[in-house]
Amino acid sequence: MKKSNAVRVPLLGIALFGCLSGLAHAGDTPLAAGGDAQPLQLAPTDSTVPAAASDLTAAPVTLSQTSTVTAPLSPPPQQFATPPSWNDTYIGYRVGTNFYYPGVRTQSGAPAKVTQNIGSVTTTGGFRYGSYAFNVDYLVSSMANPEAGPTNQYGYPTPGSGGAQELYSVGRVSFSASKVFGRSLSWGFIRDFGLTAGYEFGTKNDAYAERARMLVFGPTIEFSVPHGFWNVTLGVRTESNHNGITNVEVHFNPAVHLESSWLYPFRLGPVPLVFKGFASLTGPKGKDGFGVNTTTEFLTRVSLLADVGSFAGHPRTAYAGIGYEYWHNMYGTPASEQPGTTQTSCPMFVAEIHF
What spatial distance separates the first Cα and last Cα of the chain, rounded to whole Å? Predict the structure, then answer.
């Protein structure tokens, strides 16, 4: 059997798709331009902007493997006018106790169930021709996924004294066709078109010694929805990484990459809520660092968050609620190669504070 393909947690989609992890307004009116990664509170900095014009003012910025940062493309067609710049910066926290990673096992050989505490810093905003979103996640695993210690007589790292830590960043910049050409390009159920480019960089101190470097590029469609937003990007993703177990640099083939993100604000009685999330599908990308042919992977993360700040007189500043992450064929690893460790199905607690 191949050596452990120890954890290299990127989102979803750290991942801005994400996951992108961002929030948006959950009031009675539509979002003021909506965001591990990727789900954001997108409040324009100019409070004089009419609600309709500030509703949907940014380009789709979607996910990643560990967090989501997303934003809508353009204002509604009937109110098209270039809005002022806006920015939303926030810190987030999520925790789950049921993560699994390829090749990470207990001493008995059973799949290791990993607890992770994840902190994040996200900034997202709009500019004249589109929007941007940048996110950094800091992930701390329990001892079930240990940091790398000294190497043994065979040259393989031994478990360290603590859980592994990972730093993962995701960035997206999207250009809105309606903004670039200065007129509404909506058509039927499509609100706008765009073009998205981004990166994902990560490093981790476990045995795998991840050094992930990814680029994403593709067109985006934003659909017309009454509140919030929903967009889809279809493009290509390139990836290179380091495999510390076999000590090789891996350059994967470019892969087809499909991602979608959404955010829907609503009320349940007196409680303002936001339902947000992303889904990501990445095709086979050639052989990994163990010489195994990769397969299609699927990642989704959703959350239902309450605007708890509104109960203290500070709406759209503090959110808390539940989340759920599902990751199938993690990193493209076939289940047949690492049985029981290539799929995560994990409920989470999620909280965010917006500045």
Answer: 50
DSSP letter string over 300-336? Answer: EEEEEEE-GGGGGT-TTSEEEEEEEEEEESGGG--TT
CA distance 213 to 256: 16
> Percent of the chain having pLDDT more than 90?
53
With tokens 């190497």, the residue in question is 151
Peptide bond into 234 cis (omega under 30): no
Element of type H or E holding 140: strand 130-141
Tell me the average pLDDT of the chain: 79
* pLDDT tens per residue, range 220-259: 999 999 998 898 999 999 999 998 888 899 999 999 999 9
Domain covering 51-354 in this structure, CATH number: 2.40.230.20
CB of 79 closer than 8 Å to CB of 56 = no
Amino acid at 171: G
Report the alpha-carbon distance of residue 71 to residue 61 in Å, rounded.
5
Q: Provide the residue ranges of all domains of the chain, joining segments of one domain with +.
A: 51-354
Instruction: Give the span between the Cα atoms of 267 and 116, in whole angstroms.
Output: 31
Dihedral, CA of residue 108, residue 109, residue 113 and residue 117, to nearest 10: 90
Phi-psi region of 123 (alpha: psi -120 to 50; beta: other; left: phi over 0): beta
Asked whether residue 46 carries a pLDDT value surpassing 50, the answer given is: no
Which one, of 151, 170, 171, lies nearest residue 159 by Cα? Answer: 151
Phi then psi dihedrals of residue 340, to 5 deg: 85, -5
What's the full length of the chain, in residues? 355
CA atoms within 13 A on the CB side of 179: 25
Per residue in 278-294, pLDDT (tens digit) is 899 999 999 999 999 99
Stated pTM of the model: 0.77
DSSP string for 89-137: EEEEEEEEEEE--TT-B-TTSSBPPEEEEEEEEEEEEEETTEEEEEEEE
Q: How far is Cα 57 from Cα 179, in angstroms, rounded to an integer?
A: 9
Amino acid present at 140: V
Q: What integer pLDDT is reported at residue 3 of this predicted model? A: 43
pLDDT band at 149 (very low <50, low <70, confident <90, very high): confident
